[in-house]
Amino acid sequence: MRDTHALFLKTTIYSRSIFYYLILMSQNSKPKKKNPAAVALSKLGASKGGKARAKKLSAADRSRIAKLAVETRWRNYYKNK
Predict the structure, then answer these.
(1) DSSP string, 32-77
(2) Which whole number is the average pLDDT over 48-72?
(3) Contact at 8 Å (CB) between 46 and 38?
(4) In the predicted model, what is the mean pLDDT of residues 38-54?
(5) Statement: residue 12 has pLDDT above 70
(6) Prediction pTM value
(7) Residues 6+ apart with CB under 8 A from 54
(8) FRET partner for 39 with CA separation of 20 to 30 A, picked from 4, 6, 16, 29?
(9) How far is CA 75 from CA 21, 44, 67, 68, in A?
(10) What distance in Å separates the CA atoms of residue 57 and residue 72, rounded to the nearest whole number?
(11) CA distance 79 to 59
């Protein structure tokens, strides 16, 4: 029979070492600089896009799109299970 305590200690030490490695890597990485013009343009369009599209669609179209989204979500749920 295996010594479960020794196995637990090895697993815990291994998990901790990965955790500390990830912490160190995230602290040493520099954030990427974003283009301020692109950020401003994104804020202008992104906040309006969904609302404008929903306003343009009829109730039947919105319902059809919502049903399709639900079917796809459930299909992916069962496929990944």
Answers:
(1) PPPPHHHHHHHHHHHHHHHHHHHHHS-HHHHHHHHHHHHHHHHHHH
(2) 89
(3) no
(4) 78
(5) no
(6) 0.39
(7) 62
(8) 29
(9) 37, 34, 12, 10
(10) 20
(11) 30
